[in-house]
Structures are given as structure tokens and as C-alpha cells.
Predict the structure.
Amino acid sequence: MASNPLPPDAGARPSPGMILERLARGATRAARITHTEHLPPRIGSHADWPEQIRPEVIDAIRSAGIERPWAHQARTSEHAVRGESVVVATGTASGKSLAYLAPVLSTLLDGSEAPNGRGATALYLAPTKALAADQRRAVRELAAPLGTAVRPAVYDGDTPVEEREWVRQYANYVLTNPDMLHSGILPSHPRWSSFLRALRYVVIDECHSYRGVFGSHVAQIVRRLRRLCARYGSDPVFLLASATAAEPGQAATRLTGLPVVEITEDTSPRGELVFALWEPPLTELHGEQGAPVRRTATAETADLLTDLAVQGVRTVAFVRSRRGAELIALITQERLAEVDRSLPGRVAAYRGGYLPEERRALERALHSGDLLGLAATTALELGVDVSGLDAVVIAGYPGTRASLWQQAGRAGRSGQGALAVLVARDDPLDTYLVHHPEALFDQPVETTVLDPDNPYVLAPHLCAAASEIPLTEADFALFGTAAAGLMPQLEAAGLLRRRARAWHWTRRERAADLADIRGQGGSPVQVVEAGTGRLLGTVDAAAAHTTVHDGAVHLHQGRSYVVQRLDLDDDVALVEEASPPYSTTARDTTAISVLETDTEIPWGAARLCFGSVEVTNQVVSFLRRKLITGEVLGETKLDLPPRTLRTRAVWWTVTEDQLDAARVNPEQLGGALHAAEHASIGMLPLFATCDRWDIGGVSVPLHPDTLLPTVFVYDGHPGGAGFAERAFHTAADWLTATRDAIAACECEAGCPSCIQSPKCGNGNDPLHKRGAVRLLGELLRGAPKEA
């Protein structure tokens, strides 16, 4: 139930400290706050726009209420007008958009006065459709005084067919996403020739989000764009914007293939931020293997969102999963109805998979203030200007410190103070962080990890490039050192054919369709209401086996449905509306084989290895759990085909003598290895830009390839994503933190806060907590200092 009811939107806006004090009233509530961090307000520092920025643009900016730029905005614009690619990596709401818009608008205004031809053009890339739509709105408002000189238009999968020709012919600021650039614009480059010929700037917004396999694909898409621009005689400058990130210039260079200047000093003012770490209490319930169970982050976040809505505090609750966002919104609406029947309609869910008109309506309602609370996935994390928010609740650590600060920065965007609350899940990393605040507040954000040379990424883009313009040896320098070695394989596979000095794409199908740039594993599965045939939304192919299998509970717009049948041949899940008192969780089994060992380091008698592996995974059953408590009600078998993945992994082995030294006997060995595997997967996001759903693991008391007890941690994407490689290079720190997290947990025999995993295919059995601590300690005794 909500506490401390106040009329929504009543009175003066409370301070973030006062909001937190109200949330923490009561002995049980106050004990849940493990740490409070106060970030003081910061005074801003101004500068002047570069002389090359047109006075009309400066006047338009002043009309928007901005008299002078912050120093980092002026420095970014200065590099841009000099023709130098630049990345601005400053905090949320620091005005990064204006930093690149000033030179872009000025150049477009210059181009509109050209006596002949189309004039200058600019391209804007966003990782999400929501961000592109939001940026178009912002550009239209800012450029309104410039008349028709600036013609912004969104070109994505939601753009009606009848509008697309106008965009190609007349828009000079095209806002799109990497998906549409890859599959729509680049393959049709002759129709975009006048736009590409005049392309002066390419803006890549929220570039820190381009990591792992997705980032590697985007890096190759950018190289294809640069190649076509060179063909049409243009050489655009790249302007990148990022949340605070480690080595942003280096990451931007890997993304674009060009030298990039970095601007990292944030000179904008900032209101006070109060950041609370919140640990849900233990319940009287027991989970798998009798482990103690904490109250779920989902239930706790719904309580906080309810209380904040009742107080009239405008809030976004960030949730890691689509189902979690729906569930939090649903629980919050039910509880608000008990307080005031007008309130439930002012809280909603927002996630990917919604139809375009649903997303746009929610964005407008949040922007206008009609919504008091929103339970959102990371689809809303990136850059959408939601001014006026008072608070952010983060349901579970989002995987990286960069994402944590990005989400926390959604509140206080008008310069006022803000509250952020991180609600810990029952998970090793979350538990570690709420009790080790220095790991969040005293550490730099992570380095963005991506690998453009991944052959599973590079090969399809070489084919796509050849279909756009035949490839020559001169192109290899652009696409990377691995390109030349892949060409004979692509020829042997019948994908490319060499004629004279160039390689050609000779197949009828589209080469761009070879690349699955978001790693979704195939066509999305359509979720269809069986009785009406109505399309509710879509689910990524890679997630279909675990989320819309037969019997799964599927949530959409606050309504729950049960999957009647998953048709993998037609990529359709047929559902019927129902209200079961439970949720569902899929279970799977995994086997792994070593294909090639690239690197091997001795850790005393142990070995730390990195290389290529093949993983075979199969969803075999699902559990039904009570909605609020998570109590297991039963298990149902499933008959789904196995999936095979060739990827990259880090693994370590131990010897019989080391097991003896660690006092791990044969009966404990399987549980000790299994526990170490679970906890190390949970802790890796602290050292690489991933979360536990990007990676997987297998532990075996006697693996047939190593002939020793072995623990594997692998990238969950074909060809690898760079996470396992990062784990290999930081193994000593990573496994030390893993051992410490297990040892520090107060439970007796293991729980979700230390060694149990929510995605374990074996029902978290066997697990041996003390054996894992001793085993990791013995392994680390042999670790070289430079490892």
C-alpha cells in the first residue's frame, strides 16, 4: 500500500532528500537503504560560439532561451566546423544535442543558399526509434526561425511508404537508425545519390550504446557508408555524443574507423542528485534448494512507484525486461486504484515490441506530464528528452555503470534536484554493489567493448558492400585487417565471385539480409491473439524459446495472456487473454566443446584459456511462480529443438592436487564448480560492458576436451562479442571479486544473492557455497600478478 498520500502535482516541488525521507518512513523501510550518496550541485561555465556558426542559428538558439553555450558545447562545435570528427562524452542533460546541432544547422543554412543543386545534407543515427522521433521534434522547434532551410525527417521502419520518396528527394536532415541505414538506405544508394553526394555531417547519438555484437555491426555499417560517400565525392565529418564513458575517443575511433577528438569535461550546471541504494528485505519464503528468498525488485519497485505517484512525484522506473515493465505498471495501477481511482490512468508501461502508435502516444503523454509514472525498459533510456522528472527508480543494476548513470540522469533534466534509487535484485552483483557503494561511486565507467573484426560480423558486411559496389583490394584497409583473409571463404561459399580485379555479389537475394545486426537470431516472432487474429506485438527470435513457448505467460499493455502454441515454422505465437496467478520462467540445458584455444596462461598448476567454442542449448521446461513472492508452483516439460552457437569463451581448469589443497572432495566438486560459474557470470558486468544475459556459462567436473574440472564463461552471440576476451584480460580482478562476493553473503548454503542463478537450467542443483570459495581461493593463489 502507498504511504503518506498527497494530492498529485500539489504544492511546491519537494527536494530529493524530502522525497527519499518520505519513502523511507517506518523502521522496515529505513533499514532497506544501505547507502545514500549526495552529489552536490555544479556551477556551469560559458564560452562563445565559433565564428563560423551563422548568426541566424545563434539567434534561433537564443530564441529557445539559451543565451550562450556551455564551454564543452562551444569546443565541440569548434572541432566540427574545422572538419574534425569529435565525440562529446559528458553527463546526461549537459546539452550534447546543441553541441552538434549548432554546426549542423549552420551548414544546412549555408547549403540552402547554394545557387545550384540540393545544398548540404546531414544524417543522424540513433539506436532507437523513440530517440530519433524525439530529436526530430527538438530540431523542428529549434530550427523554426530558419524557415525551410532545415527540413528534418525521420526515415525508419515506421515511415509510411508514401512519405519515403519525399524524404529522399527533399529532406536535408534525415534521422534514422543503424537498422534502416543497413537494410534500407545503403542497398538503395543510387536513389540516395544526391543526399550522399552532399553529406557534410553524420551524427551518431548515444554512441556508448553501440557495444558488443551490435556495436561491431554498426562499425561495419559506418564503414560501408563512408565507402559510398567517397564514391559520390563526399567526406562527411562524424559528430558523436556519448554518456560519460572511459576512453570515448578510442571507442569512437573503433566505431567509425577515423581519428576522433574527445571532449570529456562537463561544463554544464547540475542540480543536486541524491542517490540511494535500496536492498529489499528477506521474506519467510524459501526458494530452490531451501535457499532464503528476498522480496523481488519488481514488487519493491512497484511499491516505490506507487508511493511516488501518490505524492505527485513524476517518476520513471527502469526495468530490465519487457515483462518486468508490464508487471510493475500493472501492480502499481492496482495499488493506486485503492488510493484514488483517478491515479491508475496516470501510470503506464513502455517497452520495445509495442506498435508504433502506442509508443508515440506514451512518449507524448510523458513529455506533457499527463503521465505521473512510467515503468520502462531501456528503450526509453537513451536521450529522449523527458524534462521535469523528479525521480528515477532503477529495478536492478542495469549491467554497466554507464547505463546506471544514463538512467539516473533522466531525472532533474530541467536543472532541478533529483532522486535516484537503485533497487537491488536477488543477484550476486546487485547484492555486492549495494554493500560496496565504492564500486559504483568511486570507479570510472567502463570502456566500450566491440570487435569489428569478428568474422561473423565482418563477412556479411563484405557481402553487403560488394552488392552495393564491387569490392576491390583497395577496400580492405577500410574494413579491417581480417577482410582479405575472409574473401577466399566467401568465394568458396558461393557468396562472392571474383571478376577481373573486383569481387561481385551474384545472388538474387539481398546481401544485407545476411547480417542480423542486433543478434536476434532470425525473424521476430509475431504475438497474435488467437480468437481475433489481432497482432499484439513481436518478440525477438532469440528470446522466443524462453518467453513465448507453449504455456508461457505473456504481458502486453497491462493485460496478461497465455501462449496456446508457438509455431516456429511460421514465427507466430498464438495467445489467449487470461489472468493466471503466476508467471513463467524457462529452463534449459547447455553443453560446450572447445574448437580452438587461442591463448593459454598457467596459473600455477591451473590454466586460464581463451578461444573458440561451440555451445548447444535447449529449452526443456518451464516453472510457474507466484506473482509477488516468486514461490515455485510446478514445472512443465517442453519439446523445443536445440540451438547451436559458435562463439568465444574464457575458461579455467584445476588439477586434482589443487582440489585436495582446497579441500574439495568429489562429492562437492560439481557444486563448487557450478557455484563459481554462476557467481562469476553475475560479477562479470562489473568488468565488461555487458550484463549477465549477454553471457552464459558451463561447469563440468571432467570435461572431455580438457580432461580436467573446467568452468567456461562464453559470449552469447555468434563469433563472440568481446566480453569473454575482456574477462580473460581482467581475470584476476574478476575472479577475486567473485570469491569475495560469495564469501561475504550472509546465507548458510547459497542463495540468489550469491551463487544461485535465475536462468540456471539445472534448477540450481548442485551448488556448494563453501567449496566454491575455497576452490576460487586456491585458483587465485596461482594467478600471475600481470594476469
Observations:
- The first helix runs from residue 16 to 23.
- The chain has five domains: 16-34+299-427, 55-263, 455-514, 525-580, 588-782.
- The radius of gyration is 26 Å.
- The chain has 26 helices and 29 strands.
